[in-house]
Amino acid sequence: MTTTGEERRTAVERAGPDAGHAGGGWWHRWRAVVLDVSLALASSVECAAEGVGFARDAGLPVAVGVVFGALVGSVLGFRRRWPVAVVLVGLAVTPALMGFLLAVVGLYTVASSDLPRRLTGALAGMSLAGVLVVTLVRTSPEVDGWFRLFAAVTTALGHTAPPVLLGLYVGARRRLMESLRERADSLERELQLLAERAEERAEWARNEERRRIAREMHDVVAHRVSLMVVHAAALQAVALKDPEKAVRNAALVGDMGRQALTELREMLGVLRSTPAAGAAPVSASREAAVAPRIPEQRGGVEDGEESGGPARLSALAELVGQSRAAGVVVELLEEGESPGYPPVVERTAFRVVQEALTNVHKHAAGARTRVRVAHREGEVAMQVENEPAGGLPAGAEPGLPSGGNGLLGMRERVTSLGGAFVAGPTDPGGFRVSAVIPVPPVADAAALAE
Questions:
Q1: Which domain holds residue 134?
Q2: How many structural domains are present in the chain?
Q3: Beta strands at 309-310 and 420-425: parallel, antiparallel or unpaired
Q4: Are 72 and 47 a contacting pair, CB within 8 Å?
Q5: Does 233 map to a domain?
Q6: CA distances from 166 to 3, 112, 120 (A)
Q7: Per the CB 3.0–4.6 Å rule, which of 176, 223, 258, 365 could disulfide with 358?
Q8: PANTHER family in the record, alphabetically (predicted)?
Q9: What pLDDT score was predicted for residue 112?
């Protein structure tokens, strides 16, 4: 994984002032280098000047004191790498009245780092005690005792408390900023994941909507177009032999073509329409979840009330009559009485029978077909079974084009309502389509209709 410079800089800043750097250094920015070098030079100059008095008091050459002070002051340049060592060096030279800047900056660095608070408190206590003792010893004995004590305590506190308190504040602020930065990064990652998931859900919803529209157009148009093809073939065969029958077939073809065009126009009108002003947007996940179930509005006409008859079980007789007119022997058997199903259930049941009859026209024209509908408690069952294709109607052409989506669409419609769907060949060589659709309670049916 490639790490950008900004990410490396952020990581070093979060690690604290004593954090190391890849490659052996411990500075993460040029500004830090300039600051530490400047502090080290200032501390060296201070300690070198204070080394003159130390050399005289110790009876050493002045040059030795100056060099010793310069070396001690230069230790401040390592405060980010070894802050504890810097404080200890400052404590060590406190009796020589040397290293004020070294001790103050060292205590600040320790307090602002991520070192244990016990270690910080111990070093601060040692510094306080050292400055207190040195001040008491160095103060002239002629000064009053209480004033000497007050001066020593004040000097020790002034030498120790400000850098420690400031370091604690800066360290706490750094940790707070780190926590806020990590939280912001976490929120950014979560938002990115949510955006990716929303895009996936939207894409899934679009695909589901495409499949639903394709299934609806197939169910609405394919049946009538199949009948039109059968009637057109029959019309061609009897045009010269029986003109009256040819006229009737031509009229049927025209009616079915107009109905198919009307239904197609209504559906395309819905696809072109825009949402009403002020309508609340529907989330992609909810839209995808309910898309296969809700009744669509097409130009003010509900899906269950298309031209040519409503898509309800009560219209099965008309549907069967159209197939009979096309020359197919169809028997309709209905068991029980319909208690009145929700529109989505009736529409799905009607579409299953309609598509099954369409498949008969396409693949088994002329075969005897039996349509059974059973109204049971809590469910409605339907079965469409055709015998092997024995003979074709006059002029009919077998093997009409098929896209292979009819059975898939029926299965999707039924399973979306929690039903069962089975389709397959029979032993005699025919084909059977069976479906059982449960009837939801009144409350659930109302939810599906919303």
A1: 5-192
A2: 2
A3: unpaired
A4: yes
A5: no
A6: 33, 8, 13
A7: 223
A8: NITRATE/NITRITE SENSOR PROTEIN NARX-RELATED, NITRATE_NITRITE SENSOR PROTEIN NARQ
A9: 87
